[in-house]
Amino acid sequence: MALVVQKYGGSSVADAECVKRVAQRIVATKKAGNDVVVVVSAMGDTTDELIDLAEQVSPLPPGRELDMLLTAGERISMALLAMAIANLGHEARSFTGSQAGVITDDSHGKARIIDVTPGRIRSALDDGSIAIVAGFQGVSQNSKDITTLGRGGSDTTAVALAAALDADVCEIYTDVDGVFTADPRIVPTARRIPSISYEEMMEMAACGAKILHLRCVEYARRYNIPIHVRSSFSQRTGTWIADSTEGSEMEQAIISGVAHDRSEAKVTVVGVPDKVGEAATIFSVLSDAGINLDMIVQNVSAAATGRTDISFTLPATDGQTALTALNKVKERIGFESLQYDDRIGKISLIGAGMRSHPGVTAKFFSAIAEAGVNIEMISTSEIRISVVVSQDDVEAAVTAAHRAFELDADQVEAVVYGGTGR
Amino acid sequence: MALVVQKYGGSSVADAECVKRVAQRIVATKKAGNDVVVVVSAMGDTTDELIDLAEQVSPLPPGRELDMLLTAGERISMALLAMAIANLGHEARSFTGSQAGVITDDSHGKARIIDVTPGRIRSALDDGSIAIVAGFQGVSQNSKDITTLGRGGSDTTAVALAAALDADVCEIYTDVDGVFTADPRIVPTARRIPSISYEEMMEMAACGAKILHLRCVEYARRYNIPIHVRSSFSQRTGTWIADSTEGSEMEQAIISGVAHDRSEAKVTVVGVPDKVGEAATIFSVLSDAGINLDMIVQNVSAAATGRTDISFTLPATDGQTALTALNKVKERIGFESLQYDDRIGKISLIGAGMRSHPGVTAKFFSAIAEAGVNIEMISTSEIRISVVVSQDDVEAAVTAAHRAFELDADQVEAVVYGGTGR
């Protein structure tokens, strides 16, 4: 008998019919002889509707109260799911994040899980019950206030519970059949990736693949929890994410996939005096403003002027904050001007095989060049190469890279089953 | 500085604008130098919408899960209210029933409060914060599951918190200006009752006055918490409910008001053998079926037949259950048949002055007779006389009784401010 943790996103429980269908899948897993713990998100657009209500009441609602409000969403979906399971003749008990023992820090809206004490979940399982847990939420260790985990929160809840319960697998249900070699909306012949290492999946997530959030994969790697990403609308096998050392028998592709991200912006600080410590000042100012930078490029200083340009990318949503913070220290640092461009896109090639295949970089750049796309910035890791291009060139660059590394399938594999959001 | 507990019903927080208006009233109370604890119901039709969702998923949802679902309603309204107060520059913290220390028994859907441990509320007040508490909900002592209190639950939460916190007053806000001598929809010249004793208010509630639920008044009497029922849409003084011995200076009316109730049905068990114990069997069968009876009348046995008829009233919603339970014991008891009538109405005259004014009953019956209304059943207590009439005669009987006891005001006093439900 295995212990299976399943996570269903908002599109999988968008309405009463969806809830009933998911209940059948859960009961089937239980009937197959497994203990089942289910983590569920809020139904469809519930969270957006609650945020809309909050905005009608206050332009800047306190984080504590916004978390209290938003956690009503999973409360509704989890109770309905438990009812639907009961209606199929199986016992199910729903638990809030707090009841499930998801202990977090005090950062409302983006709390981090610091402990999981799933005593009540264990008791429910011991009683032969299916446990339904609200995703995305917890209770803060110090103030005992309700918190939400922010983006990717429900996936992280599922992995954290799987770790705390020593589950055999964490199944993440979504509206596609797994992780693909590229976004099927751009590359219709993208292939489903049958298995991928934590490391590669983390790079995929960090580079814009929206199927799993980075923190969820990080958590799974830390506790070595195998993740199975699959569709709640089909019975097909999806993508297994696991420690690559364990799957030595799996055929290791050189390149796992091509990810893209249109959500970043590029800032260039023009004419920075080429003195020791100037770059450090710039980056500590941004860090103090709570901004996470992605790629950073510094040009060689022009000998004639003694000045250099520093470019970096960051989430476009942080753009205004960054410009304001930098303008405040313009005099102190003595740079000449700021340039801002949010019409960029990042294309990343990810693959553990890159380590031992030195020709990958050249092939990637050639493919992009042949597609007539200009590269603005470059950054690399051991298993990833990323380039920044104009946002208008994203599709051409992704398609070219995908073809160059022979990732295309013979036929269309990807089906998007759901409709709205996740 | 006083400690004020305020309760706002669903119509007072029906939408974002209503929530903001209520927030202003709460802040005004705080600014006047009071500590303020607010109990809030779910917004407008939220509870009905959640029940509708549950019905789409399961015809008979487990009580535990239905309670989990429904408590999402107050979670939303209380968080929004706290945000609206914060937006006015005052700190407010929302608390679920569980967080507020509302401990109940395990009866899902109709839990009874067995203890209130408002440590977190007290801390919030000590910090100068306004505390917002979800009405209608608690946490069960044994299983630690979320429970709901059933009808009148939010009012009861408010009174229970007021008792536990030793509050100076519990203000119940609604969409009318207080308790009236009759339902203003039937008697437009009904008068606002400035003050009324717990005892009389309990009779009013038990006899169909919907403004407060019986259990809430019972709770207030037990702990001697003054209740002020008033409108959230005006600044007028409403009705004070308090111990009558304390208000000896108040002018005591002989009759407080006329209540009516159209929600009951009448069952007649025809031809019951006139033997010792037959009535007891009938009523223990009904009691075992969980039915609360209201009025009971037994006719004098007809000497010729040795048989008698027993009539009783009960909530019409329990009618089918009662008939089924009685039909099962028809052979054993040997009665002849059952008659069922849900087209009845009950008119009750309530007043503590009745004790010392023996002519009240005669005057009441005369007034009803003069209105051409036939009385089907009669029951009395020390401070109440109730009669059952045909449902079509309810308005005529109420109007006649109200006029006979000179309760009419010179002008229309009652204004119904809100729109939908409570």
UniProtKB/TrEMBL annotation, chains A, B:
SUPFAM superfamilies: ACT-like, Carbamate kinase-like. Pathway: Amino-acid biosynthesis; L-threonine biosynthesis; L-threonine from L-aspartate: step 1/5; Amino-acid biosynthesis; L-lysine biosynthesis via DAP pathway; (S)-tetrahydrodipicolinate from L-aspartate: step 1/4; Amino-acid biosynthesis; L-methionine biosynthesis via de novo pathway; L-homoserine from L-aspartate: step 1/3. ATP binds at K7, Y8, G9, G10, T174, D175, R185. Gene3D superfamilies: 3.30.70.260, Acetylglutamate kinase-like. One of its GO terms (molecular function) is ATP binding. Belongs to the aspartokinase family. This is Aspartokinase. It comes from Thermomonospora echinospora. The lineage of its organism: Bacteria, Bacillati, Actinomycetota, Actinomycetes, Streptosporangiales.
